[in-house]
């Protein structure tokens, strides 16, 4: 057993039948959030797709920001038989959200909140159509995470997490942010979450395609090599945001993007990780969403268009 690994007697551990949180998706960020929620004393279940029934499900091997490694017992369920869900935290990639949620149509009780934590935009509206009787909450987070193996996760960066309502029913669930804060160290509720989604989208448009195409750590975007590209990306995104009624400037977006680059200098973006592992990227929900909104407003975004095409060709 690796040094510092704490065995929590997985085989005999008893989990409650109705956990506080059900997580749909156990990639890098999902695994880290499941670990942090469990360590904070909040019972958590991970819902897997049925094709994983025959897969070995060990405990989560979790490494904290401080480098402490431990084995965490985690309850598992399957979307075909999800059991009782009190609140559903969706941690899949943007392009997988709708397909992952579809098996739960007719099984998820009315009134159960659905929290979406993915990169990009344009997905929440589809979820509201699928679940018209459920509160739908959008979230943005800047936590860093890596998956180093089967149920092996590392927390690589502490960030902010914000939740906010997508539909009217969601406004009654602001308290969920406080519960997440107990696990994450910070989480807040913002009635105007759309503005934070656009700000996160701008940062993703700047960082993700460039790091994925050129196979760089985030910190490699500093310096003169990518200065012009980053500037032009932010000019184009600012034009679209202003047309969408989101007041901003290219200078402000570039400042925010470079602040994230510096804070996550040793990290690899999620798009870089997806490209390296041959997985579907979130380019459609990030740059693709920007291009669609730009087209509606008749705004030219040639640099973002070129990055979008390059990622599509390489994926």
Automatic annotation (TrEMBL):
UniProt KW keywords: NADP, Oxidoreductase, Pantothenate biosynthesis
Pathway where this protein functions: Cofactor biosynthesis; (R)-pantothenate biosynthesis; (R)-pantoate from 3-methyl-2-oxobutanoate: step 2/2
InterPro entries xref list: 6-PGluconate_DH-like_C_sf (IPR008927), 6PGD_dom2 (IPR013328), ApbA (IPR003710), Ketopantoate_reductase (IPR050838), KPA_reductase (IPR013752), KPR_N (IPR013332), NAD(P)-bd_dom_sf (IPR036291)
Keyword NADP appears in the UniProt entry: yes
EC numbers for this chain: 1.1.1.169
One GO MF term: NADP binding
Reactions catalysed according to its record: (R)-pantoate + NADP(+) = 2-dehydropantoate + NADPH + H(+)
GO cellular component, one term: cytoplasm
Ranges where the Ketopantoate reductase N-terminal domain occurs: 23-167
Ketopantoate reductase C-terminal domain sequence ranges: 193-314
PANTHER family: 2-DEHYDROPANTOATE 2-REDUCTASE (PTHR43765:SF2), 2-DEHYDROPANTOATE 2-REDUCTASE-RELATED (PTHR43765)
Family: Belongs to the ketopantoate reductase family.
Function according to Swiss-Prot or TrEMBL: Catalyzes the NADPH-dependent reduction of ketopantoate into pantoic acid.
Name recorded for this polypeptide: 2-dehydropantoate 2-reductase
Organism: Aeromonas encheleia
């Amino acid at each position: 057993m690796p040094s510092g690994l704490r065995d929590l007697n997985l085989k005999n551990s008893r989990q409650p039948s109705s956990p506080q949180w059900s997580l749909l998706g156990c990639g890098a960020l999902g695994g880290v959030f499941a670990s942090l929620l469990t360590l904070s004393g909040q019972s958590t279940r991970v819902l897997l797709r049925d094709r994983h029934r025959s897969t070995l499900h060990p405990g989560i091997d979790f490494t904290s920001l401080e480098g402490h490694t431990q084995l965490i017992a985690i309850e598992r369920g399957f979307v075909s038989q999800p059991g009782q869900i009190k609140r559903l935290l969706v941690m899949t990639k943007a392009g997988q959200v709708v397909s992952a949620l579809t098996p739960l149509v007719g099984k998820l009780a009315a009134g159960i909140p659905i929290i979406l934590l993915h990169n990009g935009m344009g997905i929440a509206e589809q979820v509201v159509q699928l679940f018209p009787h459920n509160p739908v909450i959008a979230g943005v987070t800047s936590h860093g995470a890596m998956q180093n193996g089967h149920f092996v996760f590392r927390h690589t960066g502490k960030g902010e997490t914000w939740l906010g309502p997508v539909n009217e029913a969601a406004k009654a669930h602001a308290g969920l942010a406080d519960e997440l804060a107990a696990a994450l160290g910070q989480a807040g509720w913002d009635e105007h979450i759309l503005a934070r989604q656009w700000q996160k989208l701008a940062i993703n448009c700047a960082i993700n395609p460039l790091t994925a195409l050129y196979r760089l750590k985030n910190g490699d975007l500093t310096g003169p090599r990518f200065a012009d590209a980053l500037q032009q990306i932010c000019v184009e995104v600012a034009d679209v945001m202003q047309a969408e009624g989101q007041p901003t400037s290219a200078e402000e977006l570039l400042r925010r993007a470079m602040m994230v680059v510096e804070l996550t200098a040793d990290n690899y973006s999620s798009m870089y990780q997806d490209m390296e592992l041959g997985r579907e990227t979130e380019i459609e929900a990030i740059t693709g969403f920007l291009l669609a909104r730009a087209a509606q407003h008749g705004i030219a975004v040639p640099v973002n268009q070129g990055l979008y095409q390059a990622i599509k060709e390489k994926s």
